[in-house]
Amino acid sequence: MDNSSQKTPQSDWAEALKVFARLSIWIVFPVLIGALIGKWLDKRYDSSPKWFLIIIGLSFVLSMVGLVKNTLKEYQKIAPVKKEEEKNKPEDNK
Asked: Which residues lie closer than 8 Å to 42 by C-beta, 6 or more apart?
């Protein structure tokens, strides 16, 4: 019997932490980098807080798009395919 195909509780936690880290990166890094770039642009062009707010807004949108895309990708790995369920579902003819 091959034990490599069986998951241990530790491997479940490891996979969950990897997913958590991957999704958390999409929250932290775009906004952090956006804040740094926005502050730098405001200092350079003496336009505080115009560029800071613009770049933070754009980085927030980028962050949410990346987060949703990666969340959907992870969801597809664990969720049953809806089309398969609909194929097997009997149709009601009223």
From this structure: 48, 49, 50, 51, 52
pLDDT digits (tens, 9 = 90+) for 12-48: 788 889 999 999 999 999 999 999 999 999 999 999 8
**How far is C-alpha 86 from the geometric centre of its chain's CA atoms?**
28
Residues 6 or more apart whose Cβ sits within 8 Å of residue 90:
none
User: Are the C-beta atoms of residues 27 and 67 closer than 8 Å to each other?
Assistant: yes
> pTM for the full model?
0.69
Confirm if 2 and 35 have CB atoms less than 8 A apart.
no
CB 42 within 8 A of CB 50: yes
